[in-house]
Amino acid sequence: MSAKPSVRWSAEFKAMQGVRKRLVLLVLPWLLVLAILFPLAWYELSTTLEGPLRRDRDDTVQDASDIVVRTLGSMRRDVAFLSDLTSKQPLADVSAGSSAANLFLSFAASAQQYDQVRWIDEQGNERLRVNLRSGPAVVVPAEQLQRKNDRPYFRSAVGLPAGSVYFSELNLNVDNGVIERPLEPTLRVISPLIADGQRRGLLVLNYRANRLLERLAGLSRQQRIGVYLLSAQGYWIQGPVPEDDWAGQLGRSDRALARTNPPLWQAVQQKERGGFSDASGDWAFKRLTPTQDLNLSGVKGRFEDSALGLYLMVRIDPGGPLQHAWRWKAVLALIMATAVGITLRLAWQTGRNMAVRKAHEEELQTANLALRQANEHLQTVQTELARAERLSSLGMMVAGVAHELNTPLGSATLALSTVQQRLDMLDLLVKQGLRKSDLDDYVSSSHQALDVVLASLKRSAGIVQRFKQVAVDRTTMEQRRFDLAEIILDADPRLRKWDKSQAIQLKLDLAPGLSMESYPGPLEQVIANLLDNALAHAFVNRPGGVITVRAQADGPSHACIWFSDDGKGVSETSLARIFDPFYTTNRHAGGTGLGLHIVYQLVHDVLGGSIEAANVPEGGMVFTLRLPRKAPLKKASTAISSRLLPLG
User: Fold this and answer.
1) pTM higher than 0.70 for the full model?
2) What H or E segment, with its residue span, contains residue 47?
3) Residues 479, 615: one domain?
4) SS3 for 413-455, per residue?
5) Domain count of the fold of the chain
């Protein structure tokens, strides 16, 4: 029983042999789509699930940075304020009860965030110190003052210029060479003291850093994201594991970040600000630089390079919300695997259907062969019908020419007959006796008759010339490159120098530098015929008007010419037949009806473009020509000749 399905599948696979390539081409795009959609969906899911967490993480970095910057800004203002007030005090006496001591006491009591307020002279000796711990602020007796010239913060700040501010490293406070217990995190802000124009040492404020660390810990609890501080040496000041705090100053070098998490430490050293993810969590970090951060926050003043060197570290716990994102990603992977399976199943079914359809196609090939033979026979019949139609068109044109020629030739024949009769009468009068009045009468009537003959012959010659313009083989025309505006102006001398005294005015709007590669002669003839047509028909029984010629590019490969007037326009019946040969509304005035027909033939068959005529709602007509900027080669001869002359 188990062998039958495999045999059936093998047979079906062999039947698909002729359509395998088509099947692959059909299925491959779908597989490619799935291969593209899966990473995109994975990315979008990660963005949707992890994006808000990472945004909260980055916002927390900024919030923590704002807390530190505001704290540093407050310290900078305090030390600048105290320095300014101290410089105005007499410093010869700084004992308890002096004005300088009272100033320090008042400042410490009002600020309530500084453990010590000190004046250290240029040699590093404490000259005045106020302590503020658990009780009220007190002035330290002179015998308890210490020498601080060996402290790093003193050596770094003693040479600072006036008005500058220096922040020390954030570390545990050391008193008489011993780290204080309980631990007292301290940050010192220092500014030079200038009194009576002389340097008098440094003002130093010892900030209780526990206040700052508690605020950062509170932010961590509020955002449910860990907020930590790391020293420039890579030791935790306030880290994920409380036992690692102050490890550097307490002699536990094995707890440096460079040892506990080297990749994270390397990432922190490479950038001022960035992110990092590993098994310990999703991190964001920022290096605090007082000079840059305070200036960006709008705190005014001069900040010197300091030893602060802190890194703000923010972490999303890997065991928290990020763990839920992987569950959804697993669901997505299962969905995509199901989609691939369904696609392959449908591909197999489609292959079977294609094999069946291919068999049907082979059965239809014989019937298609018979239909092809019938179609060839039909094309032969159509060729004969087209030949007959061309003969009919030629006959209609010849009949039209004959009709047009009959009128002037009839008038000429009648006039010549009249001349012949008058000549016979003159001959009779000569024999009977010719009078001067008879001769004058003969000369007058002969002049009139000959004028009629001459006018009729000129009209006949004009009809023949127009017919030649329609039927002539234009194989001698040459295609060349030219500027469209120049060719339009060359079409008629009047276009370059219009007689402004006429009632009819001319407006030109020709785009300069519009290059064409076409047949300039036929194009000039088109413009000239349109101008003659407008002057002959548009302003009949009107005092005057305006003819407008406008040309501009229509995309990169075409150009448009608008030839318009504000004349009387034409009726809808005439508009529908305006390009027909021998159709004219001005036959009584000698019109032949070939002018616009020649325009149509030249535009379509020679220039390879199109022309449309329309009435303007405000009055008048507009002819719209759309021409290729590179005309089709040798189209004039073949198109016009094949239309007018029978084949074979």
Assistant:
1) no
2) helix 20-86
3) yes
4) HHHHHHHHHHHHHHHHHHHHCCCHHHHHHHHHHHHHHHHHHHH
5) 3
